Amino acid sequence: MRIKSLEEYHLEKENFEEKPENFWEEKAKKFVWYRKWDEVLNWDFKSANVEWFKGGKLNITENCLDRHLKNNGDRIAIKWIANNPNEKNIELSYKELHLQVCKFSNVLKSKGINKGDRICLYMPMVPELAIAVLACARIGAIHSVVFAGFSAKSLSDRINDATCKALITSDGGFRGDKITPLKSIADEALRSTPSIEFCIVLERTKSTIDMKDNRDFWWQDEMKNVNINCTPEEMNSEDKLFILYTSGSTGKPKGIVHTTAGYMIYTQYSFENVFQYQENDLYWCTADIGWITGHSYIIYGPLLAGATTVMFEGVPTYPDAGRFWKIVEENKINIFYTAPTAIRALEAKGNEYVRKYNLSSLKVLGTVGEPINEDAWNWYYNEIGNKKCPIVDTWWQTETGGIMISNLAGINKEKATFATLPLPGIKACIVDDKGAELEQNNIEGKLCVKYPWPSMARTIYGDHQRYFNTYFSAFPGKYFSGDGCFKNEEGLFRITGRVDDVIIVSGHNLGTAEIESAIDEHQNVCESAIVGYPHNIKGNGLFAFIICHQKPKKDDEINLEINNLITKHVGPIAKVDSFLYVDGLPKTRSGKIMRRILRKIASGITEDLGDTSTLLDPAVVEKIITEVKNNK
Length: 632
Ligand code: PRX
Known about the structure:
- Helix content is 32%, strand content 24%.
- The termini are far apart.
- The chain is globular and about 75 Å long.
- The relative contact order is 0.09.
- Adenosine-5'-monophosphate-propyl ester is lined by residues 246, 292-293, 368-371, 393-398, 419, 481-483, 495, 498, 504, 509.
């Protein structure tokens, strides 16, 4: 299945261009199906409806687990590395993982979970999280993993949006020298989640927690006397596999829905090709399973390929900034996939943390989540890869399910700061503001995809109209990513960042609307506007322009209160870095905040702010600039 040379790469591109459906059908044949599909593709971007491999029946865990048992049952499927460097690692072979998944599937079934039920997982990075994900998939329950850094409010909103029937959590989670009290956060969330019938709690940190009778059950107890066999549920190709929430530019987070067959085919295909995975390679993706990268490239892609996937519970800087490199040396990692924000943060700690370790096992490096600047790219290439490892700069999104634009490691050209080219099978294009496709090189515009791909999101849970409006209405007939893109003179793609009101901070997508509504909860706040500005480590920092009823005399206190409110409503991943208390915000006559101007001011530009003639009150801008100068 793997493309092994530049010739094969071009051939694959041609095959796809000539007969796109055949191209994907060939990939699909490699999997175990209970019933073959009747139709490869049925699509209509005008109504945002896409179906792949209709009529087919399968189970993704049969393909992740059972398929490998005969020949590779003893191969390690998950190698888990604890937060505490002195705690023993856990290795789960494919056989053992299969067993655990079957057992937990039966636990869920015994508690009344059926095909189609939604289950929320709010867990630390422990093997049981992967087991729970796969158990849901095995019995046809739809998993909704909520990142364990989210607040009680974010958790209950997500549970309620998908009317989840059960919550799987743990007493707590280790992260560096801290413990996240997951069960008590969950308890707070569960006060307002009427759909939850029961909660399963894994013992991990041994923290003191409350267990509610008839609602809360210990994972370890439930797993004791349960049947070890579980036949996988026969799923239709288009049955929902999971929901994963992502921030939107307006309103509440969107429950992105992925379905079974297409997601399976594309995650394996992209995993093997982009990383050039070869049998017995040890692969480590440092993401959290709470994000799409963890779903597609810690769990599904690698397991479908029969790989050994490393799962790390901790953080890059605990006990010190050499932790990643220590893990690479000790385990002889071959393929390493991380985020630019981690690269920048570790670079800033100094090379002595890297040079202590032998990183010669590394063959391929990857990055994801935000644009990587040239400096960070060079450091990664020189210091981590020792100038011999190709870097794959992989552009994709929660909504795309898998990597869309990237070089294939060592196969086609790489270039610092460029994601380079769409994978064979992906028709990406750049359009101008009116939606006209810009086919020439050396242009900049908005990044779209004009033909369906198997792992694309199918809808937003419970709100197909929002799905259509968000992705298919701006440029009819095309999927619009929300990103800007530059194509250089060789036709290589460089992602320039979001063009909507989503800000990527340390690789996390944050919606301005969510943060602003948390700030507006403060009793002294009338209105606020959040924008991003360049930040050395985080990529973007958050800058808040705030109008108060009474302008604060001492900023520190209110700044802290506001950040606490954001932590409460969104989670500790979002924090404002710079505050400015202003008398007014620049608004158009229709009442829209002109963020373009605020973005410039936040990044230190106070002249040439562009056209301000459409503002209701252009004098507001001058006042803000005066505030900025006074504040320095
Ligand atoms: O702006 C792009 C940025 O991350 C966004 C998607 O975020 P999320 O859904 O959280 O998924 C992140 C992991 C796939 C994109 O719209 N992004 C992702 N990868 C890159 C990137 N920006 C530049 N270069 C990348 N390689």
